[in-house]
Amino acid sequence: MKFTSSSLRIRRRLSGVAVVALALPLAACSGGDEAVVTTLGAAQTSTTVVDEPGASADEVATTTTEVAPTTTLPIPDDAVMQLAFQFAADAHWPNGTKIGVDDVRCTVEALRSTPGSVGVDAYNAVIDVRAGRADDLVEVYFDRFVANYRVLFDRLLQASAVESCSDVSTAFDDEAPAGWGAFRVEAWNAAQMILVPTASEDDGDETEAVGFERLVLVPLGSSSVEVDLLRSGQIDVILPDVSIETVEGLSDPNLGFEQFDLGRHEDMFLRANGTFADPVFREAFWLSVDREALVDEVYAPLLGATDVWNCGPVTYDEWCDGQAPFAGSYDPGAGAQLLTEAGWTFDGDGYWQDETGEPHEITWLVAGGRARQDQLVDVLVSMMRDMGFRVKVDSVGSEFEFADRLAGGEWDLAVYAQSGLADVGLLAAANSCEELSTADREGWNVNGFCDAEADALLARALTIRDDGEHVADVQSVLRRMAETHFVLPLVKLPSAIAWRPDTVGSAEAVSAIGAAGVVSIDQLAELEDLDGDGTIYIGVAEWAACTNPVLSCGSAGWFADGIGALAVPGIWTTDDGVTITHSSLVRQAPFLHLQHVEIAGLRRV
Q1: Distances in Å between the alpha carbon of 537 and those of 4, 34, 183, 209, 216?
Q2: What fold is seen in the domain 262-494?
C-alpha cells in the first residue's frame, strides 16, 4: 500500500529561513556561471568566466561572450541598472504558449502591488520591462542598484492565467499554478503536490521520455516520520534533516543513504534589543556559552567527530580560509567580571540582576518538535542556568510560525540552520541594518545583527571587482560579528538524501538531487520508477500551507528547497547547494548592466 496524504502535518525546512539566493554583482568570488557585467550605454561585448562543472582552477577558460543587443528604444533617463535574460527555446507553459516578456511584466506588477507580497522594495525599483531585439530577450530597467538582484524573478507568473496582475492574492485559491517545462501541476495544496509529465510538442500526444507516470511530493513533518515511511515502503525518497532519527533509522543495508557537505551551518543569534540591548550583558552571555560542550552533547551523537565552527555564520571556503574570529570565545570568568564591574549581582535564585535589582530573562525562540532543537534546549538552558542566566523557552508549533516570529523580532535568542549559499548580495541583505526585520517591517535581516562598521564593509564589498579586496571585506565583517557579540557559529551540518533502491532509481539520479540541495525539474525528470506502480513518492520537510507564489507566506525556503520552482519557473537555481547559476528556463547566465553610480560613497565603474 502506497502513501496517502490526508492526515499529514506540514512543516517548513528552516535551512534558509527568509533566505533566498542572491547574486554577487561584480566580483567572481564563487564558481559557476557569473552574470556578465557591463555598463549601460557601453559597447555590448563583455568578458565572462566560464567554469565547466568539475573543472579545476587551471582549466577555467576566459571567453568573450556577445551580449544580445538592447532595443532601439532609448534607455530610460533614470535607469541605473538593467537585468537582461533570454528565455530558452523550449521555455513554455503547460498549454504550449511561450514564456515571455508579458509574463515578466505581470510578475513585476503582481509582486509590487499585491497586498502581502514579498520583495516589494526591489520590484518597486523597476521602471521598465521591454522585449529586446533578440528572440526571447527581456530587459528590465531599475532606477537604483539592487544588490540582491538574484532574488528577482525566482518565480514568474503566467499572465494569461490570472484575471488581474495588479492583485493575485486570491488567484490560486481554487487552482494551483499550472507548472512549466517537463511537468504540469495536477494538484498542489497543504498535503501534497502531484506532477505529471507534459506532452511533447514533437511527439503529438506522446509524453516526454520520463520514467514514471506521476510524481507526488508530500510534506512529512518530522525526521522520524520521514524515516518510518521510507522504511515501510510508503515513500520512495526523503530529504531529511540531520537528527537522531536519521542517524539511527537510516543505518539499514536495504536503503540508499548519502550525506553531502553543501555548506549548511547552525548558528546562535543574540538580538540586540530587549534583554540583549545591554552590550555588557550580551557579551557576558556570549562568553559563557560553552560551544565545545554543545558539540559533545548535542552534535557529536548526530555527526560523529566534528568541531566547533569558528569562521562565522558562513561556510564558503574563500571567505573562511585561515579565518577563525570566534575561536576562544568561551571565557565565563571574563563574562562574570564584566557584569560585576558594571554593578550586576546575583539574586536570591542565583540569576544575574542589574544594579537596580531588575532581573533579566532571556526569551529563546524555538521551533518545537525537532529532535536536535529539543536536545539543544535541554543542554543549553541548564548550562546557562549554572552561569547565572535565566532562559525562558518560547516554543512554537511549526517552523512556519517560527519564521514569522523570527522576522517579527520579538525574541532575544534563536538557534537555526541555514544553507551555505556563497554570495555577497545574500550576505549583505541578511546582515545589514537597513534590512533589519521588525514586527512592523519584514526585512531580509531576521537574525538581529546590526553594526554600522559591518554595513560599510558590506557596501564596499558590493562595489568592487578585485577578488582579494572583496574577500578581505567579507572577512572583516566576520570579525565584526565576533567583536560585537551578536552571533555564535556552532557547527557545519551535512545535507542528506535517502531512498529505496528497490522502488526508485537510478542511484546516480537520486544522488544528484542530494548533491544539488534542491529538487529541480531537470533532476526529477531523470528518476525511474522501478517497482512498476507508475508513481514516485518523495517526502520533504514541509512547505507553507499557502501555495500562492507571490505572498510572503510562500516565499521563505522557496528557492532553497525548490518546491515552489516545480510549480512556477524561475531564472535562478543551484547545482551544488553553494553557488548560484541560471536555471534551464534561460539560455545562459543573465546579464547585469550598470550605469555609473555612487554606492555608499564609493564609485562603481
Answers
A1: 10, 35, 15, 19, 5
A2: Dipeptide-binding Protein; domain 3 (3.10.105)
56: Cβ contacts below 8 Å, ≥ 6 apart: none
Instruction: State which fold the 36-171+570-603 domain adopts.
Output: Dipeptide-binding Protein; domain 1 (3.90.76)
- Please give the radius of gyration of the chain, using alpha carbons only, rounded to the nearest integer: 24
pLDDT at site 212: 95
What letter represents residue 135's amino acid? D
Nearest-10 crossing angle of helices 332-341, 279-287? 160
CA 133, CA 326: separation in Å to the nearest integer? 52
pLDDT at site 195: 94
Cell 539574586 belongs to residue = 347
Q: Which residue has the cell 562595489?
A: 463
- Cβ neighbours for 395, distance < 8 A, ≥ 6 positions apart: 366, 367, 368
C-alpha closest to that of 241 among 218, 223, 219:
223
Instruction: State the pLDDT at residue 257.
Output: 94
Instruction: Please name which of 586, 600, 256, 206 lies closest in space to residue 428, comparing C-alpha atoms.
Output: 600
Q: What is the pLDDT of residue 47?
A: 29
Q: To 5 degrees, how large is the angle CA 254–CA 260–CA 266?
A: 120
According to DSSP H, which parts of 98-243 are helical? 101-113, 120-124, 223-232
Q: Which of 464, 285, 485, 478 is nearest to 384 (CA)?
A: 285
Ordered by start, the domain boundaries in the chain are 36-171+570-603, 262-494
506: cis peptide before it, omega within 30°? yes
Distance, in Å, from the CA atom of 316 to the CA atom of 348, rounded to the nearest integer, reads: 46
DSSP letter at 571 equals S
Judge whether 118 and 129 are in contact, CB under 8 Å: no
Work out whether the CA dihedral 402, 408, 409, 412 comes out positive or negative.
negative
Q: What angle do CA 96, 197, 536 make, to 5 degrees?
A: 160
State whether residue 107 is helix, strand or coil. helix
Rounded-to-10 torsion of CA 446, 447, 449, 450: 10
3-state SS record for 246-265: HHHHCCCCCCEEEEEEEEEE
Query: How many residues are given for the chain?
Result: 605
Distances from the Cα of 415 to the Cα of 270, 386, 393, 412, 446, angstroms: 9, 20, 12, 11, 12
Grid cell digits, residue 512: 544528484
Q: Where are the beta strands (DSSP E) in 467-580?
A: 487-499, 504-505, 528-529, 535-540, 572-573
Q: What's the pLDDT score for residue 6?
A: 25
**Cβ atoms within 10 Å, residue 53:** 9
List the chain residues with pLDDT less than 70.
1-72, 199-208, 369, 464-467, 544-545, 552-561, 596-605
Is there a common fold for 36-171+570-603 and 262-494?
no
Which pLDDT belongs to residue 176?
Answer: 84
What distances in angstroms separate CA 424 from CA 44, 316, 360, 462, 464, one per listed residue? 25, 11, 36, 7, 11
Q: At what angle do helices 467-484 and 452-461 cross, to 10 degrees?
A: 160
